[in-house]
Design brief:
The chain has about 425 residues and is mostly helical. It has helices at about 1-15, 20-35, 40-50, 55-70, 75-85, 90-105, 110-125, 130-140, 155-160, 165-195, 205-215, 215-230, 235-255, 260-295, 295-305, 310-325, 330-350, 355-370, 375-385, 390-395, 395-410, 415-420.
Length: about 425
């Protein structure tokens, strides 16, 4: 009955369009009232959820991403990507994938990647005659590299919940990100021939390429500094996020001078709002998950799954489908905080590697960002391209299928997640 009230009240509030964070908190409070526990427990659990140095990395990475977008760093990354592959058939599609990968190594957010790269590339692609739906569809899918290629906000959350190494999760994300890029390149190569995508007649000279590389040098150095600091052990993920903020500020405001001082406060306020939304979801999701465990429902779930005598790979496959289903109507951070405390103990009992499980959680959440109805990447792409979400969803189909192919390879082959560990 406790579980029925907890989930029932949560689902009812979602159906009447209550924001996810509030729905989780109110459902927890209603259930506490039912079992005659003080509602102040909700506040205590919210405080406990946010009382973590690892969680501090999230607002730092959000702020760093916004500083990079406004400070001209993103534009230079796009210029470098265009210098590398802009001259081949369908070159701007490859530019979009590489640009999203570069920006992913800076921001850690899928919607931020979609908006930053789409605002710069999409108008130029339409101008040169690239198909609008395909361009917007690739943007929505390639933006999913944001939470996979490190640093990744979702991996920080998962690492905090499971007490696993965030650095090792980032290493797993590197392999997954490269695999996804390769598959997207192959699909682009096939479609460029089939659909006769435009080709740039001009190839950059060595001098022009060198100029683009020099211009983007400071931008490219940022992921090197951040990830190098983590993997060398000099910096924690939170400290590296703080370094990213300082570096982005210095480069964008002082060196490039593209972010005026007068606009700096607007960037900080926007970052604060974005971070508060994510942290609120984490806080109320933690309270919800704690009550789920306290009521004994999670233990019953573990016993039920254990009685089925599933193999590790079968359990991973079931979890993958569960996460994909939840990802279609829940925001990724909420899904992670809500389900990982329930699903990970079973995975641990089956001997599943915590990093491998983390890749399953992270990538499935990304797929949710491009799967209607709650598809933040499609919303972000629509805001940039002014196309209908349905048209973007049609355009993304081949890229979306390729993304899922990589996902299920990682689900079934743990080596891809642990190769660099």
């Amino acid at each position: 009955m406790t579980g029925l009230i907890l989930f029932g009240s949560f689902i009812i509030m979602l159906l009447i369009s209550v924001p996810i964070a509030l729905a989780l908190g109110v459902a927890t409070a209603i259930t506490l009232f039912y079992i005659d526990m003080p509602v102040v427990v909700v506040a205590q659990r919210i405080f406990t959820a946010l009382d973590s140095s690892s969680i501090m990395a999230i607002p730092f990475f959000v702020l760093a991403g916004n500083l990079m977008t406004e400070g001209g760093i993103s534009r230079r990354i796009v210029g470098l990507a265009n210098a590398i592959v802009g001259g081949v058939s369908g070159g701007l599609f490859y530019v979009m994938v590489i640009s999203c990968a570069f920006f992913a190594a800076l921001s850690g957010s899928a919607p931020a990647t979609v908006i930053a790269i789409g605002a710069m590339l999409y108008p130029e692609m339409v101008k040169r005659g690239y198909p609008e739906q395909r361009s917007a569809g690739l943007l929505a899918v390639a933006g999913g590299l944001g939470p996979i290629i490190p640093p990744s906000i979702i991996m920080v959350v998962y690492g905090t919940i499971t007490s696993s190494s965030i650095g090792d999760l980032f290493k797993g994300g590197i392999v997954a990100g490269i695999m996804i890029m390769i598959v997207l390149f192959v699909i682009c190569a096939f479609l460029s021939k089939k659909e006769n995508w435009p080709k740039s007649d001009k190839r950059l000279s060595l001098g022009e390429f060198t100029k683009a590389l020099w211009s983007a040098g400071l931008a490219v150095m940022l992921p090197v500094i951040v990830l190098g600091g983590i993997y060398s052990g000099i910096l924690t993920p939170t400290e590296s996020a703080a370094v990213a903020v300082i570096y982005s500020f210095v480069v964008g405001v002082i060196i490039y001078r593209e972010l005026p001082w007068s606009n700096l406060m607007n960037v900080i306020i926007a970052s604060g709002k974005g971070s508060a939304m994510v942290l609120f979801i984490i806080a109320t999701s933690t309270a919800f998950s704690w009550l789920f465990t306290y009521a004994g429902i999670s233990q019953q779930l573990i016993e039920f799954i254990t009685s089925m005598h599933l193999s590790a790979w079968a359990y991973c496959l079931i979890v993958a489908f569960i996460l994909l289903i939840f990802g279609t109507f829940l925001e990724g951070i909420a899904t992670c905080v809500l389900l990982v405390p329930l699903l990970w103990p079973v995975a641990e009992s089956l001997g599943i590697n915590v990093i491998h499980f983390g890749m399953i959680v992270s990538i499935s959440n990304v797929i949710g960002t491009m799967t209607p109805p709650v598809a933040v990447n499609l919303f972000a792409a629509s805001s940039v391209t002014h196309l209908k979400m349905g048209d973007i969803a049609k355009g993304e189909i081949p890229f979306f299928l390729g993304f899922n192919l990589v996902f299920f390879l990682i689900v079934l082959v743990p080596w891809f997640s642990t190769a660099l560990i």
